[in-house]
Amino acid sequence: MDLKQVTVIGSGVLGSQIAFQIAYSGFKVTVYDINDEALVKAQHNMRTLTDSYERDMEVTDLELKEALSNLIYTSNLETASKEADLIIEAIPEVKELKIDLYKQLAILAPEKTIFATNTSTFLPSDFAKDTGRPEKFLALHFANQIWLNNTAEIMGTEQTDPDIFETIVTFAKNIGMIPLPLHKEQRGYILNSLLVPLLKSAEDLLVNEVANPETIDKTWMIATKAPRGPFGILDIVGLNTAYNIALSRESEDSKKIANYLKENYLDKGHLGIQSGKGFYTYPNPTYLDKDFLK
Ligand code: NAD
What we know:
By secondary structure, the protein is of the alpha/beta class. It contains eleven helices and eight strands.
């Protein structure tokens, strides 16, 4: 199946990146958001993305101009959905909001339209029946900074048509992603199923005073040849997010992690890379020093 017309619903952090990357790959993309104010913000996000692409990749001005010209914006859900071959949903991680959107799309989008969710924490089966087309619905999960971190985790439900799944695998390749197919539903997909326990173990070692962040990172970096350790990763994720994840677990050891992060970092405004300081100080964290691993 040839996907030509793509719609991205929600133009925040990830939605803008997804829409821009698809437009940059030569597809026509309609961007939908709830009101004109959100769409003005979306257009601003797209212009900022052209700067990031210029900084991080070998791109020409013409390519960026063409990418911008492939994007159109609307706050009318019917206009956004009526011609779409594929709709990618990237609205806030709130179950009721997503269910409400899929119920509307089930009516507005033509039968041919494939729906894909970019949800990070829900399963596609949480929404399948609301889409009115469970066989044409699956998760297509991108990572933040999509142009650098080009993973596309693809996860269907038991009802997803295998041909539709393959269509999305091909589409992911066509927009410059590395498709990573999952054979069954898994909360957190592959990446977070690996990463979240690693980060939690590192936090446990720290709050139980077994070792300091530098020693823990050094161990991981030397032993696995990874470019950074768990605390370097936590600074990228953002310590606010790390705190919220710890709080959501509700166990005693996670409470200890949450308190530690709050007292030593959040309360001092140290949020990770975004604030210039977390476990390391930026833009030149010590784990990049040539002597760090000695
Ligand atoms: P965000 O808050 O930055 O953006 C959400 C956008 O959706 C906003 O522009 C908002 O105006 C719009 N919106 C709100 N309600 C809407 C509705 N009913 N219909 C249409 N648009 C609506 O959120 P985000 O970080 O871009 O996350 C979006 C989705 O992507 C979530 O499911 C999240 O789990 C997933 N995700 C996020 C990241 C990340 O690093 N931020 C990474 C991977 C996946």
